[in-house]
Structures are given as C-alpha cells and as structure tokens.
From TrEMBL:
Pfam families: UbiA (PF01040)
PROSITE patterns attached to this UniProt entry: UBIA
NCBIfam families xref list: cyoE_ctaB (TIGR01473), PRK04375.1-2 (NF003349)
Species, as recorded: Thermoactinomyces vulgaris
Keyword terms: Cell membrane, Heme biosynthesis, Membrane, Transferase, Transmembrane, Transmembrane helix
Gene from which this protein is expressed: ctaB
Protein's UniProt name: Protoheme IX farnesyltransferase
Length: 306
C-alpha cells in the first residue's frame, strides 16, 4: 500500500482546525449561555407544573426542542443586527462582524433551527408546547428584533415576553395546558427582564449610542433608568410570591424568594444611589440579576422535589 503523500497529510492538518473554527462560529451564533438559561427555566417550570419529576424523555425532548428554538432565534437576531454589532465592542467579535459566517448562511441556519424545533416539539412532546415555542421564536425575531429594538426605549419591556415564554413551554410539555402556574412564571420573567438588562445597557451606553439603538439609558438618562429598575424590582416581590397562590410551591420556595428578592433589591438600591457617571453597581446589578433568577427557579424546583 503506498504511503500517504505529504500534501495529503498537510491538507488534512489544515482542514481539521478550519472545521473546528467553523463549528465554534455556528455555536457562537446560537448564544449558548442564553439557550442554557432558557432551558434551565423551562426544566424547573416543568418540575413545578408536574409536582415532581416528569417523565424523563418528555424533559429531554422538551429541552432539545426549546434549545433549537432559542438557538434559531438567536441566530436570526445576529443576522438582523449584524450592521449594529460591528459598531459595538461587546458584539464586534461575533461570527458575522468578523466574517466567519456569511449573512445568508446565518439566516438560513436560524430559520432552519426554528422550523426543526417546531417539528421536534410537535412530534415528540405536544402541539401546545410547539405553538408556544413558535410564539417565542416569532416574538423575539419579529416583534423584538425587527420591530421594537431600534424604535423605542421600551424595547426591553415589551420584548421581555419572548424570554418569558420558555417556562410556559416547560409547563405545557408536562401538563398539555396553560394553567395559573405557567401564567405566574411568565409574569416573573417578564417583570425581571428590565432590571436585568437595563444595568447592562448603562454599562454599554456609549456603544448603544454609537449604534443608534434607543435603549432606556441613552434616551431617558441613567437617573430615570435606575428609578425604573427599582420599580420593576419591587414589583418582582409580589410576582414571585404570587406563585405560591397556585399551590404549586410551598414554604421553602417562599423563604428563598423573599431572601433572594430582598438581596436583589439591595443591589438595585446601591445602583440607584451610585453617581450617574459611575457604573460599578450597574455591572454588579446585571450579574446579580442572573444569580437571582437562577436561585429563584432552582428554589421552586427544589421545593417540589424535597
């Protein structure tokens, strides 16, 4: 048998890194951290709606379908915002501004994942979860990305409904219906979204100004934005406690929700008291919002399981 040529070996060694880099670029296109947070919230919501561990394969199929949906919506978002992303330091290294993926490829990738998620959920879970996932996909891509984001400082407020739909998908996957538990879970994330994202918008305010995106801090100023964050954080407390009225959760969750809510409120107060030319507590408030939501949903699942 003849030995492989030097040119063939050299070609193979160059091809593998290129393939790996292309795969990494497509993974980045899906915003994997956002996908994980959405799947996590849906899993915890499914446990709460079921009142215990749901059937394992239902959870697996729901997680795969929702992940495909969120990934596809993220890819569409990056395709549509590619002009804006190349103007912002936070997004300039994304796959499209750097040229690692062609715009047409990103668009078809996002649309394909969205269609695959709809089929997957309809076949392996149920029709209601598929319709809710489709609603979330269209909400994020069409209502938030295309319509709201570049037109109004209320883009995050109204657009928060997209991120609030995954818990409803989780509930529908195990119950086949939309009950009060699903409604309260939707309300929690909907109210959480402004005090989660507006601190980041303050940190990246100059970048949003340069990209001509009317985020609340750029349009109304830091002082108004901080006051709005406080209002929404205060509203979060009754929203999180309202979940207990459904009987789906008990005392463990209530204690965790109160403690986590007060801690998050304390961070928001510190941000509000900080001078408007400083962003230390805005950074901390953004990170605290992610920790808060993780603790909250983990607590509701643990409450049911223990």
């Amino acid at each position: 048998m003849p030995a492989p040529s030097v040119h063939a070996v050299s070609s193979d060694t160059r091809l593998l890194p290129a393939v790996i880099n292309k795969v990494k670029a497509y993974v980045a296109l899906t915003k994997p951290r956002i996908v994980l947070l959405m799947v996590f919230s849906a899993l915890c919501s499914a446990i709460v709606a079921e009142g215990g561990w749901p059937e394992v394969w239902t959870l697996v199929h729901m997680s795969v379908g929702l992940a495909l949906c969120a990934a596809g919506a993220s890819a569409f978002n990056m395709w549509y915002d590619r002009d804006m992303d190349q103007l912002m330091e936070r997004t300039i290294h994304r796959p499209l501004p750097t040229g690692r993926i062609r715009p047409q490829s990103a668009l078809w990738f996002g649309l394909g994942l969205g269609m695959l998620s709809l089929i997957w959920l309809a076949v392996f879970v149920n029709g209601l979860s598929a319709l809710l996932a489709l609603a979330g996909y269209l909400y994020y891509t069409m209502i938030y990305t295309v319509w709201l984001k570049r037109r109004t400082p209320l883009n995050i407020v109204i657009g928060g409904g997209a991120g609030a739909l995954p818990p409803m998908v989780g509930c529908a996957a195990v119950t086949g219906e939309i009950g009060w538990t699903a409604v309260w879970l939707f309300a929690i994330i909907f109210v959480w979204t402004p005090p989660h994202f507006w601190p980041l918008a303050m940190v990246r305010n100059e970048e949003y100004r340069l990209a001509h995106v009317p985020m609340m801090p750029a349009v109304r100023g830091f002082r108004v934005t901080k006051r709005q964050c406080l209002v929404y954080t205060v509203l979060l407390l009754p929203a999180t406690l309202g979940l207990a009225m459904t009987g789906a959760v008990g005392g463990f969750y209530l204690v965790a929700a109160v403690l986590a809510g007060l801690a998050f409120l304390a961070v928001q107060i510190r941000m509000w008291r900080e001078a408007d030319d400083e962003i230390l507590w805005a950074r901390r408030a953004f990170r605290a919002s992610l920790a808060y939501l993780t603790v909250l949903f983990a607590a509701m699942a643990m409450d049911v399981l223990i």
